Amino acid sequence: MTPADGGNLALLLAFAVAVYGAVASLLGARRRVPELVASGRNGVIVVAGLLTLAAAALLYALLSHHFELRYVYDHSSRAMPQAALVTSFWGGQQGSLLLWAWGLSLLSAVVVLRQGSAGRRAALAGPVGVAMQMPYVVAVLLGVEVFFLFILGFVASPFERQAFVPPDGRGLNPLLMDPGMRIHPPLLLTGYMSFSVPFAFAIAALATGWVGREWLRAVRGWMLLAWTIQGCGLLMGAWWAYHVLGWGGYWGWDPVENVALIPWLTATAFLHTIMVQERRGMLKVWALALAVVTFALAIFGTFVVRSGVLTSVHSFAQSTIGPYFFGFLGLVLIGSTGLLLYRLPYLRAEGTFDSLLSRETSFLLNNLLLVSLAATVFWGTVFPLVSEAVRGVKVAVGPPFYQQVNGPLLVALLLLMGAGPLLAWRYTSRRGLARGLLGPAVIGALVGAALFVLGVEQGLAAVAGGACAFVVLAVAVEYWRGVRARQRGGESPLVALTTLVARNRRRYGGYVVHLAMVLIAVGVLGSGHQLERTIALAPGESATIGRYTLQYAGLSGYQEPGVQAAFARVQLDGPTGERLATLEPDRRAYRNWEQQPVSGIAIHTTWPWLDDVYVVLVQADADNRATFHVFVNPLVLFIWVGGWLFLLGTLIAAWPEARPLAAGVRAAPPPREAVTSGA
Fold first, then answer.
1. Which of 35, 157, 305, 446 gives the lowest tally of CB atoms within 10 Å of its CB?
2. pTM of this prediction?
3. Cβ neighbours for 588, distance < 8 A, ≥ 6 positions apart
């Protein structure tokens, strides 16, 4: 059996099993038939196995050069190293969709296996919260699989054959040959598909009527996992763009960048919302709506990249799958909205906002800011489609729009990150708040004023810098108070800090994430003072940019299988003439892609100024005269350090608590029909 035959058969069988499993789970839950529920759950495992076979078939076809498959021909060649051939798996539309479906099948299997046989028996014994919801969770996850398997099996198959077998393939797009592409796309695709699990639990909660705290306890870890993966994917994408594309930046408000950011913003709002619902029984509609919207935005992001409806350096060409994604997205939104409206009577808040100066009010304001950011980015992204529908012409929205509109919202979020932790639940006295805010606020104001005096041209940037200092001081105050309280019990500072974090990982891990956001904000603010210059030099000539001098030493070339390259040697000197580094930017042309050469960027971070000197070789002539595009980007290093701190904070917050949190308000019972009918 050829890879094409095996892969196609696996996809078709997986489609049939997914349809059966979804229907069996629903019928088993409604009619309380244990065998059907168990059969649906087993279907999840079978789909995961079949999609693993399909993925293995495609990977084998790529590694063994089965060019009779159109996908293998379009995205690989004999000259490519094996590592690049693995990247080809998700380098095209069909392969990336297979990775999406395969990843979801594995994650769904983990969800099912975690429940165990005890949960299967309890699911039919009566209304027992999450256990009762599991058949609906399974049905939703398999329903999502049905859609993707339909696309892969009948619309855009990665196992499509060609009429003849060419001797070699076209090869992968040179921009995708970078090692960063072995990590960035799988991370983002995994993030997108991971949002399916919180969505499935939200739909199950609405379907069964168990809309209290039970589903939140089950879903928090899954949303945190998806949010972390998506955040790491965004940071990895920024790093890839910075090191590969050669335009001197890491974020250009490109449509594909935007659609990856939007669900991360709404997931952030969800994670803050569930704190309020767990503690006070409030914002129930917010939690369910955000889980649904986040998944819908993940599907929208997949739709934008794969349909080609928006112009982007990241997106694939125009495709026939766009209408299918649009239809599926409509089905998700209409069905979820109908369920949410049906359950509205059971989503009444169990508490009230007792004061404007309270932590729950700050969380609500946080949600409004995050959703406003998401809505702004969404509107700017889809505006070309709206303008084309209304006026017949696509009008793109550029970075100035996002910067002008989102800038004040981001500054407000920074200020809220600093003030929010100082607020108590239910009520905070003005005197207590003033006492907690005074020190951080004064220091933040002084930092903002100093930045303005030192020449930060834009007033909002100076305010943002002051807000960053305010957040750091506010978080430091929170840690200091906690450590000091434990030291009164005789603990050493290190033991006190360790115990403090271990006893409340969610809170103090969240503060670390806040600090990570501050570092990223500092990097963004610093890079706003970028210097840029295009210079043409003969060997031995030099040029200056800012405080740095670049001297061009000469050009050399080399050739490897499938690629020809030339690299320049550039000496980088500091302000006092000291030698900082030797940079070697290059220019590479790959076989079958000679008209699309790519640049190897040379980047050196200087100390102690923390500038990135960023050199791009644009072209070179026969006399070895070379043209360079040079940037000096201040403080970009803070973005990458902030990324690692973001991951550390998330791991702390996600780690199991050393002791359970105090119980909150008791969850509301399910509606009557959920108990009597098994709905």
1. 35
2. 0.90
3. 174, 563, 564, 565, 597, 598, 599, 600
